[in-house]
């Protein structure tokens, strides 16, 4: 197996520090609807 | 200790046409692996032999378990997603504030989602109430091991009132000195026209570390879409600002700078030219990244979008283009484990589609109105509550709809919820856009299986 992206445990991350920051809301999804500016 | 395993219900597997093996992606963990041709037989057998005993100390079994491709037989994966959605939504020690310091804008983009332009700056009373909200939040959480405030500067064009933002950030920085367990993230979405290097550095020093500026392709198309209110072109000013930042910011400063490209059917080629320009000028600095998104048509009280309406892509077509541009922007030095979520063509699992349902996530309007959705932020009738002068937030009846997850509302969303619970894309969507579901009354499916498989093909091609 050649690893491309490591899996994450989202339950574990549910209360974790938010490191990424977000632009409006849209760091959370990939539609980009939320920050069409 | 051995156990009985089963294949995850969230696997996507397909042939790797170029390499001859297979590629597997799991929406629940976000994991992606390429299976070499010599391992395919065993890999297939492990997935097919679901409900068999897990073989310890076997490398392939171990990797497939770590990556979430196989799980313990008793694992309820759907319940995990419901649990992570609920847990993250009810977290008390993180607050997300999206702040509209002004509803005014110096641009006249035809696709702006602001329903009614009202040209208002945030009132002094609202600034003060906002500060008091922060003090209350800090006081409430001060005994916790850590707590976090997340400030997003939105608008309107926030840099029109940059001084006000900086004054507020100064106050928050001072407040944080009294609370050693406090953490802060801050980001800003700006059109970049007023963003000189000097202003950027001042705001960076105050803790604004995530930035987004939008360019609609190169000058040829950008200057027809993103003009000033007086219809003047803006590309050269913005691009010069970005180059000044790139050239002057010290190498040890930590920040993330996104350049977003909005595209229409007729501006895709221009976005490709912008991407080439970006590659030449910015790609050596990993603090910068670029991503592209289709223009969406939001309902407003104006008709300026009519001029470009026929040029707006349908959802699936738009996603295909954004994915292609994302793959084009992949630099061989980019590590897919650290790629910013919005730039990744294969979606990562998420706690919720957006922050709107989180108990502690609020969008604060100029007059203290509290909103839930980033794209419905100016009409008082859409407000879910109010920020009171003492810093408390009182929610109204709208919040009963807007602040609820699809999982909490079986009475309202019964059939749609059942579709979501059965869907392999649930971990990357978690019910999707609240606005689309509430306003349109149907499931707002953004992804579909074909889009995922096509993105997997592109990944496989890129990593051979």
The two chains with the largest interface, and their residue counts, are: A-B, 35 and 88 residues
Mean pLDDT of chain B: 92
**Helix share of residues of chain A?**
10-25%
Outline type of chain A = flat
Q: Tally the helices of chain B: what do you get?
A: 15
Provide the succession of SSEs of chain A: EH
Distance between the termini of chain B: 36 Å
Q: What's the gist of this structure?
A:
Chain A has 37 residues and is low in regular secondary structure. Chain A contains one helix and one strand; from the N terminus they run E-H. Chain B contains 15 helices and 16 strands.
Which features characterize this protein?
heterodimer, A: 37 residues, little secondary structure, 1 helix, B: 464 residues, ten-stranded mixed sheet
Give a written overview of the molecule.
The complex is a heterodimer of chains A (37) and B (464). With 37 residues, chain A is mostly loops. In chain A, 11% of the residues lie in helices and 11% in strands. Chain A contains 1 helix and 1 strand. Chain A has one helix at residues 10-13; one strand at 2-5. The longest helix of chain A is centred in the first third of the chain and has 4 residues, at 10-13. The relative contact order of chain A is 0.14. Mean pLDDT of chain A is 70; it is low at 21-26. With 464 residues, chain B is of the alpha/beta class. Chain B contains 15 helices and 16 strands. In chain B, the strands form 3 sheets. Chain B has a 10-stranded mixed beta sheet with strand order 12-11-10-9-8-7-13-14-15-16. Chain B has a 3-stranded antiparallel beta sheet with strand order 5-1-6. In chain B, a hairpin with a 6-residue loop joins strand 2 (11-15) and strand 3. The model of chain B has no long low-confidence stretch (mean pLDDT 92). Chains A and B meet through strand 1 and helix 1 of A and strand 4, helix 2, helix 3, strand 7 and strand 8 of B. Strand 1 of chain A pairs antiparallel with strand 4 of chain B, so a sheet runs across the interface.
């Amino acid at each position: 197996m050649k690893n491309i992206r490591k899996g994450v445990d989202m339950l574990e991350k549910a209360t974790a520090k938010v490191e990424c920051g977000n632009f409006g809301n849209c760091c959370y999804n990939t539609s980009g609807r939320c920050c069409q500016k | 200790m051995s156990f009985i395993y089963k294949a995850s219900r969230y696997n996507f597997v397909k042939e790797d046409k170029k390499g001859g093996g297979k590629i597997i992606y799991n929406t629940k963990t976000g994991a992606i692996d390429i299976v070499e041709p010599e391992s395919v037989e065993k890999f297939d057998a492990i997935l097919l032999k679901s409900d068999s005993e897990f073989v310890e100390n076997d490398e392939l079994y171990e990797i497939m378990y770590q990556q979430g491709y196989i799980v313990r037989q008793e694992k309820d994966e759907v319940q995990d997603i419901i649990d992570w959605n609920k847990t993250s939504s009810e977290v008390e020690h993180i607050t997300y504030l999206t702040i509209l310091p002004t509803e005014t804008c110096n641009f006249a983009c035809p696709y702006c989602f602001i329903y009614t332009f009202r040209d208002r700056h945030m009132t002094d009373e609202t600034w003060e109430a906002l500060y008091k909200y922060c003090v209350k939040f800090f006081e409430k959480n001060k005994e916790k091991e850590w707590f976090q405030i997340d400030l997003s500067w939105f608008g309107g064009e926030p840099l029109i009132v940059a001084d006000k933002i900086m004054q507020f950030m100064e106050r928050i920085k001072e407040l944080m000195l009294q609370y050693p367990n406090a953490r802060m993230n801050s980001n800003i979405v700006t059109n970049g026209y007023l963003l000189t290097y000097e202003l950027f550095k001042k705001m960076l020093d105050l803790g604004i570390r995530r930035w987004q500026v939008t360019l609609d392709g190169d000058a040829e198309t950008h200057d027809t879409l993103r003009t000033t209110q007086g219809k003047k072109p803006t590309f050269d000013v913005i691009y010069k600002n970005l180059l000044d930042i790139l050239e002057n910011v010290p190498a040890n400063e930590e920040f993330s700078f996104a350049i977003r490209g909005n595209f229409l059917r007729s501006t895709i080629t221009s976005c490709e030219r912008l991407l080439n320009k970006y590659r030449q000028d910015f790609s050596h600095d990993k603090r910068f990244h670029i991503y592209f998104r289709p223009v969406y048509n939001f309902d407003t009280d104006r008709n300026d979008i009519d001029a470009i309406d026929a040029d707006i892509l349908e959802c699936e077509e738009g996603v295909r283009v954004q994915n292609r541009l994302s793959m084009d922007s992949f630099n061989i030095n980019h590590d897919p484990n650290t790629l910013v979520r919005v730039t990744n063509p294969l979606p990562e699992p998420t706690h919720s589609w957006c922050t709107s349902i989180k108990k502690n996530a609020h969008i604060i309007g100029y007059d203290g109105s509290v909103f839930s959705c980033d794209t419905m932020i100016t009409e008082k009738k859409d407000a879910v509550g109010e920020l009171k002068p003492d810093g408390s937030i009182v929610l109204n009846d709208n919040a009963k709809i807007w602040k609820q997850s699809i999982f909490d509302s079986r009475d309202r969303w019964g059939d749609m919820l059942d579709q979501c619970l059965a869907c392999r894309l649930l971990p990357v969507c978690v019910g999707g856009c609240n606005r689309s579901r509430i306003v349109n009354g149907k499931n707002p499916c953004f992804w579909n299986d074909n889009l995922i498989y096509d993105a997997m093909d592109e990944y496989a091609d890129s990593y051979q």
